[in-house]
Design brief:
- The protein is mainly β.
- The chain folds into 3 domains: 3-151, Immunoglobulin-like (Sandwich); 156-310, Immunoglobulin-like; 313-525, Immunoglobulins (Immunoglobulin-like), CATH 2.60.40.10.
- Helices cover 2% and strands 42% of the residues.
- It contains 1 helix and 38 strands.
- The chain has one helix spanning 3-15; strands at 33-38, 42-45, 56-62, 70-78, 86-88, 93-94, 97-105, 110-119, 128-136, 141-143, 145-151, 156-158, 164-167, 172-174, 178-181, 190-196, 200-202, 209-214, 225-232, 240-244, 249-252, 258-267, 276-280, 288-293, 302-309, 313-318, 321-324, 329-341, 353-358, 363-367, 372-374, 389-393, 403-412, 419-428, 444-451, 460-461, 505-506, 515-516.
- Strands 13-25-22-16-19-18-23 form a 7-stranded mixed beta sheet, with no helix packed on it.
């Protein structure tokens, strides 16, 4: 593997735990202790084989942070248990053992690789065996682990539910989920995992489901979602589709606005991550009912149902009044409050709320909040001090009842008017009107500074250089502040960096599963 591929493999395997814990996890002892991590501990081989997309045993070894460098590590896979029905890729394999060259693994290092396989022609479906992963080292101990390899595979897929734009707060919503098997082997059961954003809830609590929270859903960008894992014992036969035996009802809360349901189906026992703080439901048992034939490829085991509620969020703005002498610096605080009823979250919307701030005439901004940049007439530019107008992004999620404050420090000029002011106005970060805010009466406010001893005439609200925004059609940047004080002060250096959340794609060439997060819009799944 190239160094880049190995690094990316490390990110996949270390950041995403293996589906099965290593069997031989070792206690601390003299010298480094390493444990294998595998992407999948059960691998199915299509029959007939597909040489263009062979299945893989993908493994990794992370360094021991407490044990120093593991030296001369040689990783080996004993394929004698699967060689009767499996052809492995062309590599250094002798007497049924494939080896990877010696390598030192530092305490913060990583080493990884993979072995490609295909079923031999005419190998019977269901034939199974185990490959053993082990390693040698001059100073380290490495725990063995195994991977089960089977001819044939279970191919569970779920349907994609069309986007809903008319969900009514307070009204129940049925999730018409179906599960099909596009593989060649029967799944003995299904683990159905669901995760719902904060504006949704699970109305029915089935007795074979556990309920809690999760923060590992890629679409949620690290936010904590309500989660359910349902262990369904119904066998799912190849080529068949099944529907749920009872409606999967979602509560649409009064705070709902831009929401989604994330759902995944995997063979039962395949290592679906558990929910945190889990509790078992007390309702009926959820099972599957035959519902026709499996859909043609391509299909997916994971889908996202975007649910937009018919709701509004009222953003109310207030501004400070201050008194100062020429040459003084004063801090002016703007406050934006979400009066609800909806909470505002950007996970499936680009309509990022912001505040346009005019610096009062005769004053100069010497300190600005994080997440603010000079207004360009169609968006926000790189942060700097001294601009006449600023556009500030409001952190997401912006829950109903929550308020954010933005503090601007301005220096009073010698020629500042006796009374000077600046407009404050809510709008989206790309300059458009916020459609969800239908109450425009409280969308504007003022900064006001009374300058003592000024001989200049009253300045009033100036709007900076007069560049007032009009609704724009400019596509916004992929922007989303984090949840940790994105509107805090930055200091007066004027060199702050705005932290936008953007799509990130992780891939190790063509050698591993690509983990991808793509940014979704309100109008697309």
């Amino acid at each position: 593997m190239t160094a880049t591929a190995a690094a990316l493999l490390g990110a996949v395997l270390v950041g995403t735990p293996a589906h099965a814990d290593p069997q031989g996890t070792l206690a601390a002892q003299d010298g480094p202790v390493l444990n294998f991590t595998v992407v999948r501990d059960e691998v199915g081989l299509p029959q007939p084989a597909d040489p263009t997309d062979p299945p893989q045993i993908s493994w990794g070894l992370a360094g021991d942070p407490d044990g120093g460098t593991a030296e001369d590590v040689v990783v080996k896979i004993d394929v004698s248990g699967i060689s009767a029905f499996t052809d492995v890729s062309d590599r250094d394999c002798k007497a049924g053992v494939c080896a990877w060259p010696a390598k030192d693994i530092a305490s913060d290092g990583f080493h990884g690789g993979l072995l490609e396989m295909n079923a031999k022609p005419n190998a019977p479906l269901g034939t199974t065996g185990k490959a053993r992963l082990f390693a040698t080292s001059s100073n380290a101990t490495v725990a063995d682990t195994t991977v089960t390899v089977t001819v044939g595979a279970v191919g569970l897929v779920v349907n994609r539910i069309p986007q809903t734009d008319t969900a009514e707060p307070g009204a129940p919503l049925d999730a018409p989920i179906t599960i099909a098997n596009t593989g060649s082997l029967t799944a003995q059961g299904v683990d159905l995992r669901l995760a719902a954003t904060q504006g949704l809830g699970f109305a029915q609590r089935f007795s074979n489901c556990t309920y809690g929270t999760t923060d590992d859903i890629a679409s949620a960008s690290g936010q904590t979602l309500d989660s359910a894992v349902c262990h369904i014992s119904t066998p799912v036969e190849p080529g068949k589709r099944y529907r749920l035996s009872a409606p999967m009802i979602l509560d649409v809360k009064q705070t709902a606005l831009f929401e989604f349901l994330d759902y995944t189906a995997t063979p039962i026992g395949a290592g679906v991550p558990a929910t945190a703080d889990k509790a078992r439901g007390s309702g009926p048992v959820l099972s599957l009912v035959p519902d026709g034939s499996a859909p043609p490829a391509p299909a997916t085991d994971h889908a996202l149902w975007i649910i937009n509620a018919v709701n509004t969020a009222d953003f109310a703005v207030t501004g400070d009044t201050a008194t100062a002498d020429p040459g003084d610096s004063v801090t002016l605080t703007a406050k934006v409050r979400n009066n609800g009823p909806a909470s505002f979250n950007l996970l499936t919307s680009d309509d990022h709320p912001g505040l346009l701030v005019d610096i009062p005439k005769g004053t100069t901004a010497v300190k600005i909040p994080k997440g603010c940049g000079p207004w360009t007439g169609g968006g926000m530019s790189e942060p700097r001090l001294g601009a006449p107008q600023y556009l500030c992004a409001i952190d997401s999620p912006f829950n109903a009842g929550k308020a954010v404050t933005l503090e601007f420090t301005v220096k009073i000029g010698k020629d500042a008017p006796a009374t000077t002011g600046g407009d404050l106005r809510t709008l989206s970060v790309n300059g458009g009107e916020l459609e969800v805010d239908t109450n425009k009466a409280n969308d504007k406010a003022l900064f006001t500074v009374d300058v003592k001893g000024s001989s200049a005439s009253t300045g009033g609200s100036t709007g900076g250089d007069g560049n007032q925004p009009e609704p724009q059609t400019t596509t916004p940047a992929n922007a989303s502040s984090d949840n940790g004080g994105a509107l805090a002060e930055t200091g007066n250096s004027g060199t702050l960096t705005i932290a936008w959340t953007s799509a990130a794609v992780l891939a190790a060439g063509g050698l591993l599963i690509a983990a991808a997060r793509r940014r979704r819009t309100r109008t697309g799944a």
